[in-house]
User: Which sequence fits this backbone?
């Protein structure tokens, strides 16, 4: 009897209470491409919303986020992360010569860039060494949200501070309404800025290369591309797949860290060993996705290879042995996988089939026509 | 009894309903519906026989070399062929785990998931808290599939890491690696050489090197171990031990200098490895 009674007597309207409408931004649903992971890296405290993504897009492209009064020092995410290069700098950037980036003060970034796409499927850390990962002792440095904060304060990036960044954005009249739509109030905080930008970046899904279309049965790969794919996924071929995926791992990366035989001396304090203290991880770096590899030269964490041909030559006959080389580099004592010129050409043809031209021209990811 | 109470409550309400204005009618209607729902359930039906007693089971996984836990990343292990080795990681699938009871019944783990991934780099995978309610009784033996059987081992079975990282290329048969046992050894030229002891679907090649067929290399294991009792409401912890030395030493001697560092495209090597794998597992009961 209690329940009906409660319902019966609870219906009386109290005209004195004015309810504040709850903030209900529009949820954004990720469409998972064929074969892609279904577990998404979306923090519980930063669900994706249409309004959050819209705000994040503006902030991503807005140089005022750097907090510098001098417009000449303005720097945004998009200053280096260019859509036409799969949100990497690229080798032909007019400012960052040969793809070597630096901050507003000219201090070079420690490593060359990694592109930005399919990060919503990445649960294994960010940056070449995975410094930002779920196991980081600092809760602020465990997910994509950390990268905005880090980019603002890092001397080799925006060289600013969060208060300046917040004040700069707060001073722009148009942003208050965008923050209200995204988060319920007009308050501008670094946390909200990071969350919005991360939401925007998590929409960067690249899954429409020729290889994707081939997997969906929409196109046929050329004989050279198919031969290259066979090389890619066979141990007696180029054996790329153990670290860089394939049909069964269409991210084309494991997001794990390997010493791939580039050096015999290891003095970079920012390798994977520098993060984990595991001596077997000296000289180990994240295996980057090979999607859109055509657009992301130069290659490796130190940008040592300018072209895909140089990379293929390296894996074919340029490997350097060391006690720390990953066992997956099982051709090391032959200096590499020893590809013929035809095999190299076919492997390159396959790698170029991983280019997603729709992704790098998708207007949803492009610079907004007008910033607030 | 319940129906009598229902009549006593509902009839006056229906009479009142006729006198009420529109706003009150809505409230009365809601009250009548909820009250009727509350009292309309019949007495509980015959519950039938009680559910059979069940317990829970947890599988723990250990990787031993000569009865000691494998110490990774250090060259210290000598196999029967004289190869001095180190291991860097062991990753494998177990499936079709079946309990064989003393009364002749069998129970195959099947609910929630029937394939478990073990990765020495991921501690959480080294214990499998089985979701199923396991029938109580004396279990004489356990069998399982090393790897994944042909019916289940299909590409895109797993799309999420870490399992998806075990994919076995379609051109080589598809599905997933049964095992990745990676490491290095001192080869016969005294070089430190990596090895990838990887098992999965094998291939048949013609004289031109074209693949003409595939061979399923998964196999069933009936590991030695004690009988144990699944008790109602209790959790039994069973340890599945992989004797890594046995992959190289028994019943055949596996020589890394002979087979080399990669075997995914070498069915003869994988077949020989699988022969050794069949006695590479045993069970132990965790009674701590």
Assistant:
């Amino acid at each position: 009897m209690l329940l009906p009674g409660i319902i019966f007597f609870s219906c009386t309207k109290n005209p004195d209470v004015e309810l504040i409408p709850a903030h209900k931004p529009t949820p954004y649903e990720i469409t998972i491409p064929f074969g892609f992971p279904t577990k998404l890296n979306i923090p519980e405290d930063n669900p994706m919303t249409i309004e959050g993504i819209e705000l994040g897009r503006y902030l991503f492209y807005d140089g005022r986020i750097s907090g510098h009064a001098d417009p000449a020092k303005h720097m945004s995410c998009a200053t280096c992360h260019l859509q036409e290069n799969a949100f990497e700098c690229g080798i032909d950037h007019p400012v960052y010569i040969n793809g070597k980036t630096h901050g507003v003060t000219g201090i070079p970034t420690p490593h060359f860039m990694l592109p930005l796409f399919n990060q919503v499927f990445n649960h294994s850390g960010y940056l070449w060494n995975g410094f930002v990962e779920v196991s980081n002792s600092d809760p602020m440095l465990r997910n994509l949200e950390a990268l905005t904060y880090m980019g603002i304060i890092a001397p080799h990036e925006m060289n600013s501070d969060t208060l300046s960044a917040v004040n700069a954005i707060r001073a722009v009249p148009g942003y208050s309404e965008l923050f209200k739509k995204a988060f319920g109030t007009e308050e501008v905080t670094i946390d909200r800025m990071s969350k919005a930008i991360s939401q925007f970046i998590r929409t960067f899904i690249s899954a429409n290369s020729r290889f994707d279309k081939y997997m969906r049965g929409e196109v046929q790969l050329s004989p050279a591309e198919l031969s290259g794919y066979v090389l890619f996924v066979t141990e007696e071929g180029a054996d790329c797949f153990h670290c860089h995926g394939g049909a069964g791992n269409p991210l084309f990366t494991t997001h794990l860290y390997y010493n791939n035989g580039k050096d015999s001396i290891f003095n970079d304090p920012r390798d994977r060993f520098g993060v984990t203290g595991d001596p077997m991880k000296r000289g180990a770096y994240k295996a980057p996705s090979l999607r859109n590899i055509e657009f992301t030269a130069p290659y490796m964490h130190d940008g040592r290879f300018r072209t895909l041909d140089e990379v293929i030559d390296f894996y074919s006959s340029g490997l350097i042995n060391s006690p720390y080389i990953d066992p997956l580099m099982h051709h090391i004592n032959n200096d590499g996988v020893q590809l013929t010129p035809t095999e190299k050409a076919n492997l390159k043809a396959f790698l170029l089939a991983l280019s997603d031209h729709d992704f790098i021209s998708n207007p949803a990811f492009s610079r907004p026509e007008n910033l607030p | 009894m319940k129906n009598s109470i229902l009549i006593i409550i509902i009839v006056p309400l229906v009479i009142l309903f006729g006198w009420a204005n529109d706003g009150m009618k809505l409230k009365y209607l809601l009250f009548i519906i909820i009250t009727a729902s509350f009292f309309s359930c019949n007495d509980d039906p015959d519950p039938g026989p009680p559910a059979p007693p069940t317990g829970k089971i947890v599988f723990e996984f250990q990787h031993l070399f000569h009865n000691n836990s494998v110490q990774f990343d250090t060259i210290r292990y000598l196999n029967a062929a004289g190869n001095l080795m180190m291991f860097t990681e062991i990753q494998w699938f177990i499936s079709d785990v079946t309990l064989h009871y003393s009364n002749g019944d069998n129970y195959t783990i099947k609910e929630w998931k029937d394939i478990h991934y073990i990765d020495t780099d991921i501690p959480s995978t080294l214990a499998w808290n089985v979701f199923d309610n396991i029938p109580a009784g004396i279990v004489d033996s356990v069998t399982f599939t090393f790897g994944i059987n042909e019916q289940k081992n299909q590409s895109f079975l797993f799309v999420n890491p870490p399992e998806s990282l075990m994919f076995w290329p379609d051109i080589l048969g598809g599905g997933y690696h049964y095992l990745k046992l990676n490491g290095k050894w001192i080869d016969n030229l005294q070089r430190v050489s990596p090895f990838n002891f990887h098992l999965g679907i094998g291939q048949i090649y013609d004289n031109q090197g074209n693949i003409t067929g595939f061979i399923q290399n998964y196999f069933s294991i009936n590991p030695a171990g004690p009988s144990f009792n699944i008790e109602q409401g209790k959790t039994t912890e069973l340890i599945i031990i992989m004797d890594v030395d046995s992959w190289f030493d028994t019943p055949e001697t596996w020589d890394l200098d002979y087979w080399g560092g990669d075997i995914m495209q070498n069915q003869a090597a994988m077949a020989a490895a699988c022969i050794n794998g069949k006695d590479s597992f045993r069970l132990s009961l965790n009674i701590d």
